[in-house]
Amino acid sequence: MLVASLATLVRAYLAVKLLFLALFLGAALLSMAQRRRVFVYPRLVGFYLILGVVGIVWAVVGLLHQGNYVSGVLDAVRLYVIWSLAFVVVYTLLRSEASLGAIHAALILAGILISLINFVGLADVVAGWGLVSETIREELNLYVGVHEDYLQVNSVNISALFVIVPYLLAVQVRADALSLILTMVSGRRALWLVVALVPGTILLLAIVTGGLGVMRRGARRFLLGYVAAAVLGAAAAPMLPARLQEVGPVRRLVGAFSAADERAIQKPYLLEGFARSPALGSGFGAYAGYLRSEEAPWSYELTYYVMLFNLGIVGVAALGTLFAVYFVFVCRLLSRFKEGAAVPFALLVGLCSLLMGAYSNPYFGGFDSLFFIGLLPYLSTFRAGFDRPAPAATAAS
To answer: Which residue, 52, 82, 113, 199, has most beta carbons within 10 Å?
Structure first.
């Protein structure tokens, strides 16, 4: 329930999530007391230790830069240091149990709940029922934009679909209908693109991990056919008739690449800021010269450009190397262990999809969404196989 609540109530209803966290910690501590042993996973600790060090170093860089916002620096310390400590505890406790099945069930439950919440909100607006109170709408940021030729569903939990929909597609090469329909009507262009790329992501990761041969023949043919059709479609896109390009969803999708798009406007400011301090960046809390949010002037949507602006070449190289090394760890485990690898493989697909979606969305700014990043070091700890119920780690009595 903890994982499902983190995915369903992103940045909302803190008291509910704290309740599930308390129940989770209580059950985990009781289990450890019965075993009289605590399992420590070096790869898990190492990942978050490096992440915390990066956070501290570039917080100092931010404080040394005149004009940086102290609030922005403290916000980054919370994300990189405090949350890293919390994730070490949560994922260590998860890993100490047979948790892959629980995570699978939690993501399925979250997909159903997110779909139901947003469809009820959509129907409430369109039909004028008035069932959803303004308090609930504000807490969930649940608003529906009815535009001339398309709908846009805005909700705090839409970001979780970047993981859930690709995960469900990968785990059985299908997804539940509600999640797919919500993806289509959400109006989120990045989500459309990421989900459209999922078959290609599945195929690429299957090749990298040597898992292409264990796929069902029909699924393999579908993926290959889809990728071929997608390449041909992308090549033919510029030749679409002007009339077809004016269709609502098509126009909205094309608008994402327009120079007038909000994110396109931010890019040159972030690159100019990076050019002023290319080695170490401007540190956390830096303002790039373009105001996107009055409450947080240091925040922007283009995640990886922001990282370049804040961390510079050295910081981006450090984080890039960290993620690359752990990605290789997981791919090697998937190549080595085929038994019980369906869920881990699908989780890796979901994580890669979230990383793609984060390109144009600030999804790494909260505990809930950062939880999914921890799937990478979590999966890297299954060094004895994914189907082994007993933890493979250093035990401390």
So the answer is: 199
CB 169, CB 126: distance < 8 Å:
no
Q: Give the residue from 361, 300, 348 showing the smallest Cα distance to 156.
A: 361
State how far the Cα of 102 lies from the Cα of 93, in Å rounded to an integer.
13
Using CA atoms, how far residue 388 sits from 111, 223, 232, 391, in Å, is: 27, 30, 43, 7
Rounded Cα–Cα distance for residues 45 and 30 (Å): 22
pLDDT score of 183: 59
Q: How far apart are CA 70 and CA 86, in angstroms?
A: 23
> Residues of the chain whose pLDDT is less than 70?
1, 144-153, 172-190, 237-260, 388-397
Report the alpha-carbon distance of residue 281 to residue 274 in Å, rounded.
6
Do β-strands 143-146 and 38-40 pair in parallel, antiparallel, or remain unpaired?
Answer: unpaired
Say how far apart CA 107 and CA 120 lie, in whole Å. Answer: 20
Residue 154, phi then psi, degrees to nearest 5: -110, 120
CB 307 within 8 A of CB 295: no
CA distance 349 to 336: 18
Instruction: Specify the pairing of strand 394-396 against strand 143-146.
Output: unpaired
Q: CA-to-CA distance for 175 and 179, rounded, in angstroms? A: 7
Structural element, H or E, at residue 218 = helix 217-236
Task: With beta carbons less than 8 A apart as the criterion, state whether 307 and 342 touch.
Answer: no
**35-51 pLDDT, tens digit each:** 777 788 999 999 999 99
Q: What contacts 257, CB < 8 A, 6 or more positions away?
A: 264
> Contact at 8 Å (CB) between 357 and 351?
no
Query: Would you say 350 and 372 are in contact if contact means Cβ atoms under 8 Å apart?
Result: yes
| Displacement of CA 32 from its chain's centroid (Å) | 30
pTM value > 0.70: yes
Burial 263-283 (b: 16+ CB within 10 A, else e): beebbebbeebbeebeebbbb
What number of CA atoms fall less than 13 Å from residue 337's CA on the CB side? 20
DSSP secondary structure letters along 76-141: HHIIIIIHHHHHHHHHHHHHTS--HHHHHHHHHHHHHHHHHHHHHHHHHHHHT---S-HHHHHHHT
Tokens (6 digits) for 141: 């940021």
